[in-house]
Amino acid sequence: MILFNPYIFAATFLVLMLAIITLHMMYPRLYTFRYRHTLVSVIMRRFPVRRRRLSMAMKIAIAVLLSLAVAQPYIVTKEKIYIESKEISELRFNARPALVVILDTSGSMGGIKLETAKTVITEFFERLSPSIDVGFMDFADSIKQAIAPDNRSDVVKAVKEARAGGGTMYSYPLKAALSWLKPYRELNVSTSVVFISDGMPGDLMEYRSLLKDFKSLEIPIYTVFIGEESGGINEMKLMANTTGGEAYIAKTVDRLAELLNNALEKAAQSIQKVEVKTRITKTVDVYTPLSSIFLACAAMLYLVYRFTVYRFSGVTF
After folding, report:
1. How far apart are the first and last CA of the chain?
2. What are the residue boundaries of the VWFA domain, all occurrences included (predicted)?
3. How far is it, in rounded angstroms, from Cα 233 to Cα 303?
């Protein structure tokens, strides 16, 4: 939409129209003229009414364009700009990638499976770069422990204290992990999840509905399934494939340590490779002046007008 100062436009247009009407009434030579020669004298006929109306219409159009140019017309568009400040630079510097490990501690995970997983996770956290935030959750039919990515010593302590017992519900820990990691993603900080389980969930549809949120936020889930149950294997593959992670299948406990360590390392590498870029945007109004465009249009129309006068009268002034 074109905006302009209506008062300046009205005043300019009024002045120009008064000048046009005055000249139109006081100078009939604009529409009739005499050509004199030493031998002949020819009086040209008066322009037909139609031509005079065309001439007046073109003058009014030129007056409108000139009035708009003087009225400082402009258009307003929306544009996003990036905001830089000392505080934002510090935020970018301090933002660290995050890794959350979710461990199934249902009854079926008791014994050597749980102890092996705890040992691998603990050793991994202890050697992992301090530039990565780590969180931990263990669950059964509900969340037992939930240590958000903040204090690594508390995370390691929670891993060591994990105990087996209860059923298996995937949706609760996934919802909690999503709430932890979403703020990281809003700042464009990379995150990942490692999910370890040995059984089918009792909330199949509920947990599946959460995977689209992980996908949209670009939070990959690296899964480790323990056992040979086809249903559980398929769910772990679905979770990993949907979110952009990878699925690891430890069909025997003997391979659990190796594959779990591989999954943890891969999850950590995926977030270490991504450069953290935090950019804050703001929408502002951009004003684009149009006076020069209207002046150019008026000049073009004036040239057309002069050509029309010359064509009808043969006079170029």
Report:
1. 38
2. 98-263
3. 80
Cα distances (Å, whole numbers) of residue 94 to 112, 114, 212, 217, 278: 39, 35, 29, 21, 11
Range of the domain at 92: 87-272
Q: Report the CATH number that the domain containing residue 238 is assigned in CATH.
A: 3.40.50.410
- CA separation, residue 172 to residues 19, 235, 308 (Å): 81, 16, 81
List, in sequence order, the alpha helices (H) in 35-190: 49-70, 86-94, 112-127, 152-160, 171-186
Would you state the pLDDT for residue 31?
46
Query: Tell me, what's the pLDDT at 90?
Result: 44
**Residue 108 DSSP one-character state:** G
- Examine the domain organization and report whether 14 and 119 are in the same domain: no
Residue 39: the pLDDT is: 47
The whole-number mean pLDDT for each consecutive block of 10 residues of the chain, a chain of 317 residues, reads 79 85 64 48 50 80 87 83 52 72 96 96 94 95 94 95 96 97 91 96 95 96 96 96 97 94 92 57 81 89 81 57
Examine the domain organization and report whether 101 and 166 are in the same domain.
yes
Amino acid identity, residue 89?
S
Three-class SS of residue 141?
coil
SS3 3: strand
- What is the predicted pLDDT for the residue at 11? 86
Do 164 and 68 share a domain, yes or no?
no
Looking at the structure, do residues 309 and 244 belong to the same domain, yes or no? no
Residues 96 and 236 in one domain: yes
pLDDT of the residue at 86: 47
Report the candidate in 148, 128, 160 with the shortest Cα–Cα distance to residue 261.
Answer: 128
- DSSP label at residue 73: -
Instruction: Identify whether 190 is part of a domain.
Output: yes
The structure's pTM equals 0.60
Domain count, the chain: 2
Whether residue 110 is found in the same domain as residue 254: yes
